[in-house]
Design brief:
Elements (H helix, E strand, L loop, with lengths): L3 H5 L7 H15 L2 E2 H5 L6 H19 L11 E3 L7 E7 L9 E3 L3 E3 L2 E3 L2 H13 L3 E7 L12 E2 L7 H14 L8 H24 L4 H31 L5 H12 L5 H9 L3 H10 L4 H11 L4
Parallel strand pairs: 2-8
Antiparallel strand pairs: 1-2, 3-6, 3-7, 4-5
Helix pairs in contact: 4-6, 6-7, 7-8, 8-9, 8-10, 11-12
Length: 305
């Protein structure tokens, strides 16, 4: 998640949360190993070395072909011991799509909060549930420090299918290239689109459109878009209900029926935040499918960021 490390840089006024997160980030930094060292180590399995070299290839593609910002990211490796790198808590009102926001200096309003420890995330979630919010607790495959620290390759990434790993790396590199303070939906939606559209181009250029690798990427991207479309449909139906003027108690009792499935507003907003592929594809096509023109147009649209 893109804001986690920025929160580590904030002054002590933010309390114990920042201290705990800083300790977690420091642990990652101190226990990361240089990839060059691992590649030279005969004890490291060839499977791991090939994946690390693949990550380097993805990064080079993103920087040279997509125009993503060059950085020291993904030149080191961190073993998570099979555990998620971070746990994410988000919350939303039950009777409307109004996310709970955490405010911090520098990053502004943030609609989710990251934790290195599962117990801390669960404690935050329980407090929000007691306040009457819909709450989502999930994990993140990675997070970007936006260039403040070198982001390592995580051991959990190595188990990803190639097409998902390409999309993930390009997603995180996008955060370090274009970042709108307080613009979570824009930042995550953009990174998701760049990740998967970039993965398509990577597979096409590396293997060709007739290859199994390209076919798998097409199908994986299509599955993401189907999930996004379903989330948008549920969002539209419920948003209309929430704006109907009915009493809050009546809205809450009706929403599962309207949506056609058990509803958690926090989960719907989280899915919507990482989707909206159609919006960014329209902008990409307007730029003629040229990445530099696409990014430049977005920067102008957002007032230079």
């Amino acid at each position: 998640m893109s804001r986690l490390a920025l929160l580590l840089l904030l002054p002590p006024l933010c309390g114990c949360y920042i201290l705990t997160q800083a300790q977690g980030q420091l642990r990652v930094l101190l226990n990361s190993e240089r990839i060059d060292t691992l590649l030279a180590d005969p004890k490291v399995p060839d499977r791991v070395k090939l994946k690390l070299l693949f990550v380097r290839e993805i990064k080079a593609f993103g920087e040279h072909e997509l125009g993503l910002k060059r950085s020291s990211n993904y030149e080191s490796f961190y073993d998570t011991k099979g555990q998620p790198i971070t746990y994410i808590v988000s919350a939303c009102r039950k009777d409307r799509f109004e996310p709970y926001l955490w405010w911090f200096p520098i990053v502004g309003d943030v609609p989710y909060k990251g934790f290195f420890h599962k117990e801390d995330a669960q404690e935050e979630a329980r407090a929000l549930i007691q306040e009457g919010y819909d709450v989502s607790v999930g994990t993140a495959a990675a997070y970007s420090t936006l260039g403040y620290f070198p982001d390592p390759v995580l051991s959990t990434m190595l188990d990803y299918p190639d097409e998902q790993l390409v999309a993930l790396i390009l997603h995180e590199l996008t955060h370090g290239t274009i970042y709108l303070p307080g613009g979570t939906d824009f930042n995550e939606g953009l990174a998701s689109f760049v990740g998967w559209q970039g993965a398509l181009e990577f597979a096409r250029r590396r293997h060709g459109i007739a290859s199994p690798q390209y076919d798998r990427t097409v199908r994986a991207f299509a599955a993401e878009e189907r999930r996004d479309e379903k989330a948008r449909d549920v969002f539209r139906k419920l948003d209309a209900l929430y704006k109907s003027g009915k009493p809050a108690r009546e809205i809450v009792s009706e929403r599962d029926r309207v949506a056609g499935l058990p509803v958690n507003n926090a989960q719907i907003l989280m899915q919507r935040r990482y989707g909206r592929y159609d919006e960014f594809r329209a902008k990409f096509e307007k730029a003629g499918g040229e990445w530099n023109r696409f990014f430049d147009a977005l920067v102008r649209e957002k007032g230079g960021l």
